[in-house]
Amino acid sequence: MILERLSLLNFKNYDEAQLEFCSKFNCFVGNNGMGKTNLLDAIHYLSFCKSYFNAVDSQNIKHNLPFFVVQGWINKTGNTEEIYCGIKRGFKKQFKHNKKEYERLSEHIGLYPLVMISPSDSELIWDGSDVRRKFMDSIISQYNKNYLEKLIAFTHILQQRNALLKHFYENRSFDSMSLEVWDDQLIAYGEEIITIRKNFLNEFIPLFNKNYQFISGTNEIISLEYQSTLKNRFYKDVLSESLSRDRAIQYTTVGPHRDDLDFRLEYNSLKKFASQGQQKSYLLALKLAQFEFIKEKKQTKPLLLLDDIYDKLDETRFKKLIELVSGEQFGQVFITDTHPLRIKEVLKQNKSEYVIYKVEGGVIEKHG
Ligand SMILES: Nc1ncnc2c1ncn2[C@@H]1O[C@H](COP(=O)(O)OP(=O)(O)O)[C@@H](O)[C@H]1O
Ligand SMILES: [Mg+2]
């Protein structure tokens, strides 16, 4: 799968931009704040219908302008397909494939897979469990359409149940019958979601281990484990045991919406005990495993976006990574770097096809 062309109008710090890409390495070089990451984010829109960084679409419109348009031309099967995303302040998002608007955006998710590796991935270690659930859920949603629908249904039921708990609390009342209506559905969806997540991890973990060994060049023992609030018990039992607590705080405290992933290195918490280098390798291995996993499931090489990867790796590991992604098992790659010469040197040695674009304050120029 190749992104052949990208066109931007009023997207973030760009007025207008047209870019053509080669089938292997495409680099955006320039100083900080010039708009390199914004280009990756525009590509992210084409795949996920949204920004990687900012959930509020309208904030990605260039300041003081009414709309943005991001268009991409992707060749997946020998034909070029056009993807269009238009955001206008105060209007519904327009997302089209070959000029035809989707009925639901979820139809698009997974068609043009993409993996972004960015300095902000460290959130996976430092932020709350929601970020780790999102990581897992977003991979699963790319190949399992039902999963996304189950998650949406579960969340809806959960909101209803929490509203009811709140109602009981405020009215000093309780009616087990009306709660059970929600509980039955919550349990059914909840158990399914947890099973799908665990099955996903069973396939994902071997890929993750393999990539960590490659990146770190060590035999350090790492682990990634599903940590469930159910602790291998039936949701029904755990839910009924937590009822008095849930009523007191008017919130459902157990279920897949509270589950987490536990990251460990040599049996210890990655967050508390691992070195920065080990943490970076761990994150990179997670992302490379994501790539490999999606590639197998979708039988398509995802676009790979590497944002400021030097932040993550020393020189040797950087070269190792470039060597890895230049291989057959990877497809088209987009890289940002603040040092134009550094990336050029590495790519020259590598012998793969490459294009370098120089980015300066929203203006893009082909460079060597
Ligand atoms: N909606 C927006 N309108 C105008 N400029 C924006 C908008 N969103 C972000 N920017 C600008 O984009 C620049 C950051 O671009 P970015 O791609 O992150 O730079 P870098 O080259 O360091 O990766 C900042 O100067 C920021 O002010
Ligand atoms: Mg950047």
Features:
six-stranded mixed β-sheet; binds magnesium ion; Glutathione S-transferase Yfyf (Class Pi), Chain A, domain 2; Rossmann fold; alpha/beta; binds adenosine-5'-diphosphate; 2 domains
Describe this structure in words.
The chain is of the alpha/beta class. The protein has two domains: 1-113 and 300-368, P-loop containing nucleotide triphosphate hydrolases (Rossmann fold), CATH 3.40.50; 123-298, Glutathione S-transferase Yfyf (Class Pi), Chain A, domain 2, CATH 1.20.1050. The chain is 44% helix and 22% strand. It has helices spanning 36-48, 123-126, 129-143, 145-171, 176-216, 235-241, 243-249, 270-273, 276-298, 315-325, 340-350, and strands at 2-9, 16-20, 25-29, 67-75, 80-88, 94-97, 100-101, 114-117, 222-227, 260-265, 268-269, 303-306, 333-337, 354-360, 363-366. Strand 6 and strand 7 form a beta hairpin. Helix 3 (129-143) packs across helix 4 (145-171), helix 4 (145-171) crosses helix 5 and helix 4 (145-171) crosses helix 7 (243-249). The mean pLDDT is 95. The site of magnesium ion has 5 residues, from helix 1.
Which secondary structure elements does this structure contain, and how are they paired or packed?
Layout: E1 2-9, E2 16-20, E3 25-29, H1 36-48, E4 67-75, E5 80-88, E6 94-97, E7 100-101, E8 114-117, H2 123-126, H3 129-143, H4 145-171, H5 176-216, E9 222-227, H6 235-241, H7 243-249, E10 260-265, E11 268-269, H8 270-273, H9 276-298, E12 303-306, H10 315-325, E13 333-337, H11 340-350, E14 354-360, E15 363-366
Parallel strand pairs: 3-13, 3-14, 8-12, 12-13
Antiparallel strand pairs: 1-2, 1-4, 4-5, 5-6, 6-7, 9-10, 10-11, 14-15
The structure holds adenosine-5'-diphosphate and magnesium ion.
Magnesium ion binds near residues 36, 37, 307 and 308.
